[in-house]
Specification:
Blueprint: E1 2-8, H1 16-27, E2 37-43, E3 55-61, H2 67-72, H3 74-83, E4 92-97
Antiparallel strand pairs: 1-3, 1-4, 2-3
Length: about 100
């Protein structure tokens, strides 16, 4: 399955709790309208003081969907514009093909 993984760094001026609150309560609901996204998962570090990133966002794409399809859409443009409210550009973005080795 094709997946976009975004390692998120909060903007200067936000503490970790403010970042997480905005991300999960304001930004994440916008992802519901993204075309071709089958699953959206968020992960927050258990110990943010020791983590290099403030969170991980994972978008699972339908087989015939590209990242361009997702973010070229009106909904994708809204999601991207909203990231300026809480995310720093320092994070990493990976587009990967996931292979599950084990699933219990």
């Amino acid at each position: 399955m094709r997946k976009l993984v975004n390692l998120l760094v909060r903007q200067d001026g936000l503490d970790h709790e403010e970042f997480v609150d905005y991300w999960l309560n304001e930004h994440a609901p916008l992802a519901e309208d993204l075309p071709g996204v089958k699953k959206y998962a968020t992960s927050v570090p258990a110990d943010p003081e020791k983590a290099a990133y403030d969170g991980i966002a994972e978008l699972y794409l339908a087989a015939d969907t590209t990242v361009g399809d997702v973010f070229g859409s009106d909904a994708g443009q809204r999601v991207q514009a909203d990231t300026a409210n809480f995310v720093d550009d320092a994070g990493e973005i990976l587009v990967v093909d996931e292979t599950v080795q084990f699933d219990e």
